[in-house]
Fold these 2 entries.
Entry 1:
Amino acid sequence: MTTPIDPSLIGTRTDEFSTSAERGRLRFFAEATGQTDPRYSDLGAARAAGHPDLPIPPTFFFCLEMDNPNRGDFLAQLGVDVRTILHGGQKFTYHAPAHAGDVLTFWTEVTDVSSKKGGALQFIVRDTHVGIAGKPVVTLTSTIVVRDPKAAL
Amino acid sequence: MTSPTTTGTNLAFGQEFHLVCPRITRTTLALYAGASGDHNPVHIDTDACHAVGIDDVFAHGMLSMAYLSRLLTDHWAQEQIVSFEVRFSAITPVNSEPTCTGTVTKVDDSVAHLDLTVALPDGTVTLRGAAVVRLG
């Protein structure tokens, strides 16, 4: 039986952390995702398209979020086994561009907790706010599904 | 691909955009694990899969979302993307060849709305989502 997730979790926030993406990391991501558009790997092509440096591609903010040194703490403190979770959904809302070398600050807030099928499936929705020097860049909304491993679905 | 080619003036309701992905091999998954930082062994290690009763590795959901992102940035500059969301509805087995589709559902003066899907050749929809892009 998975422990029911307390709705009082809604509104709780993580500490901030900061990270940035080097050009080489963005080139590796372009290669790994089959992205051949030179704006994502060639500095000259990026600059010709009006970017000060290689742009951070739309979904890479999700990867940067995993740079959080305490990223395992959230589920561990809830007593949730990572092998029982699924990534149910992901949303990005973009506010401003970000590029290689920018120092990006992340913090995360729980916005919803719910359950279905008598608690066999529990849903946690979290918003991660990403900014550069206090200016918003992107908001990530992630839905995590926690399965009760003993329940027949 | 050199630069975005689509503008608001030539978008029509129901217009479709496609991106056919190459086969997602074990190498693809190993590279994506390294590049994304998602090292969950269910995507790269068949021994770890067998230990928890899974037959074989399967693709990261966010890899398919990255392919959808390419579909968008092939047609619009990234700064034009206002929002982009998906729900993950089925697993993508290793050696799949998914196809990404974007369908214009609404266009007004300043923005276009698209429905997005990623589907396997047998018709299984693995991701379903939507995007809003700013025009002009």
Note: The radius of gyration of chain B is 16 Å.
Entry 2:
Amino acid sequence: MKFGVVVFPGSNCDYDTYHVARQVFGQPATFLWHKDHDLRGVDCVILPGGFSYGDYLRAGAIARFSPLMREVQEFAGRGGLVLGICNGFQVLLELGLLPGAMLRNKNLKFLCEHVHLRVENAATRFSNRARRSQVLRIPIAHFDGNYFAPPDEIRELENNGQVVFRYVDERGRAAAAANVNGSAASIAGIINRGGNVLGMMPHPERASEAILGSEDGRFIFESLIRSGKPGPRRGMAP
Amino acid sequence: MIDAKLLADHNLTQDEYARIVELIGREPNITELGIFSLMWSEHCSYKSSKVFLKRLPTKGKYVIQGPGENAGIIDIGGGLAIVFKIESHNHPSFLEPFQGAATGVGGILRDIFTMGARPIAVLDSLRFGPLDNPRNRAIMDGVVAGISSYGNSFGVPTVGGEVYFQEGYAKNPLVNVFCLGLVRKDKIFYAKAEGVGNPVLYVGSKTGRDGIHGATMASAEFGKETEQKRPNVQVGDPFKEKLLLEACLEVMDRGLIIGIQDMGAAGLTCSTTEMAAKAGNGIVINLDLVPQREEGMTPYEIMLSESQERMLLVCSRENMAEVQRVFAKWDLEAVNIGEVTGGGQVRVTWHGEMVVDVPVSAVVDLCPAYTRPSRRPEVPPAPGSPETPPPPSRLGQVLLKVMADPNLADKKWVYRQYDHMVQTNTVLLPGADAAVLRIKGQKRALAMTLDGNSLYSQIDSRAGGRIAVAEACRNLACVGARPIGVTNCLNFGNPEKPEVMWQFEEAVEGIAEACRAFEIPVTGGNVSFYNDTEGASIYPTPVLGIVGLIRDIGRLVGPGFKKEGDLVVLLGETREEVGGSQYMRIVHGRETGPAPALDLDAEKRVHEVCIAAIERGLVRSAHDVSDGGLAVCVAESSILSPAGLGCTLDLDESVRVDALLFGESQSRIVVSLGRSRLSELRKLAARKKVGLSVIGRVGGHDVVARRAGRQFLRDPVARLRKAWEETLPRAFSVR
């Protein structure tokens, strides 16, 4: 699986993500400069965390106009795998590749800490190495991670199995205190209807090596690597 | 016309002015006067401190760069070096907490990457007035948000530091920011304008009127009219700085430039004159070419502006176009504003006119140095009786109270606002004895800590300096790191007061003694004087930033207890000392001495035992005994235990119970280990002549203390945790 990590001005998890793809999983990986028009034949595009364009105006709002985003949109339209982490998720929302928007965290502070996520759909190409209802411990680091969509949109996401990760407590129970940023339906990560574009606020690249205190982020990369291999692909059914 | 009022506005004395006239052979014009006022300010020239700073040991086998550059550099082997420094941004942070703190972070980051290093860690030492005052809370809220905003966006993890509250900081908060970067030894850059005829390039943000006289402001006391100085505080743009970082590292990595200097305090003035001075050259620049944010700026304003996110660099004529291409790729300007000249003059033109023409050396090197009068302060009389009050009876309650005190309470409210994990090197999360960062692909790791105790320093400045070094090294020892380099931030009052000068001299002497004992070089730092408001000085506050090296990251231990049944062992000795302790302050409302005694040789031996025990895999946890004493130390080890394990201690009967639990005797570390490892640890301790006592056992979910079999303290770990965790969030909850 060849990974391409997009570098926007202000991206700051680009190296971390590249490091995990390359050094931790030994996969081919390349940086993709936002001003280019070439995806260099990658199998999976990752929009990394950071503060693209300083998050000025609104997180992700300027990055969506970067030249490379046209190619990313076409790539996604052809069924190519796109993973947006944190700021990358925010860019996917601005691009309209995923529904909804991000509000400021409910406590109006930046939050950096380990949280617990429940895998709500283990049948996606981003989560098939995990079990359904498995609890993952992965850190977040964001100011605008309070996911918002109108109630009927949320209902549709739920009905289609598009909610992939939800904030829960360490035992896997939904709890107000565990929904640290105040997201609608405690949503931490969603997938598009085509099953090839996933956005998540937590940082799996920060939880892929034992020395950093958690390896639960590996599930996401391992799922992608597996789904990139030839053979029957799993469907979208939750 | 330069008159007494104009000189006073520029913080220059009549004598200093006479010296300027003598050095340049005529009266300076207003722009030149501005340049001298900045470069001869306390902030830039260290005129009151440099005589004393010479006492600090700065040499060492692995020192690549000592004091005098943007930051110190230490060789860590394997072709790598660390670049690190601490800076204060106290005055701006009081006036405008968010931007003051944010630009403090921005400034220190530039100091590190201007040398070619990528910043990999930031730590902050913060001091505020007590939390019950809304004004103090607002300052703290703003400072933390400012650090968070800048560091997070830039993408450097803020991995540790300290926060302390005391009345004296209410109108003089301290914001000291430490940064460490990693560089390949063959890619280090210096601020040298070499090669006569080479172009001088201005890169980064445009110049505006912000921050004019920032350095001068930081070199005077605050009075009642301080609010008017708000426009002196600069506004930060972390996004611009991130672009500047990437562009600078790219041109450095490709060997396209010769010298580079950031524009921090004193902006264009400092960068042009210092770069020329370091190469023994002159420099000429044309201000009409300087990118400007505002119309109608005067030469004085352009030269004195402290607009952020700007750098000055020198490259060869051949490489200039390529350098400009790299900056353009990152959407940044790189404008040729002048060139390196021979002859040693700094010349500035504007609208075809020569507006500055003075010798570089006069500006940079010939500022007067002062040995100001100093006098031992009268020790303030202790409130109440001179004797130590008897220990209270309900010690469990006392421990809860101490744990909940803002100075000892959990600082998660602060550090969860900082991205402390970006770059994926943070191995020990904030809250441990020291921050630990891996070096990707290596067994070795870096540890770093900031420490200072202003209460000890107020009581006895020399002891405060010595203990700050000792405690920082002890924190490193607790993660198995050997200290390799020191930077310091010396926060004091007005040096024109003899008592302040005395405190300063004593503190420097204390730091020097301790650094010599630990054989660690001081590679740089910062002095912040004039921390006075309306005539009152802060407690002397030397803050030490010490970096250590861990040989094998695989052996790392943390402060939390790990296993039921493990022995709790105290390395070092407990003496009957409660002076200067947090216990005396919190429980008895006293800030009186004496400060705890410190034997540097004994301290060093305790560290050696702890490091060896960690390297041999003998211990499962290590935590230093410092503020709050032994009781707070074991309570923290219980709270930080992943399983919430408590402990039962059987304590010595010869020491008074208050000193035993809460005294702050130095040179002590609490470790926990399996029973089978005890004999090996004993041998280690005996060889180094370090006191070792088995003081208890890990287990249960309470912290229990007994003497002669009689229990006199029992607190559930859950209650201790709650008291410890809730203080800061409660103080900041909406009321």
Note: The interface with chain A takes residues 145, 148-149, 152-155, 237-240, 242-243, 329-331, 415-424, 426-427, 429, 438, 440-441, 553 of chain B (CB under 8 Å).
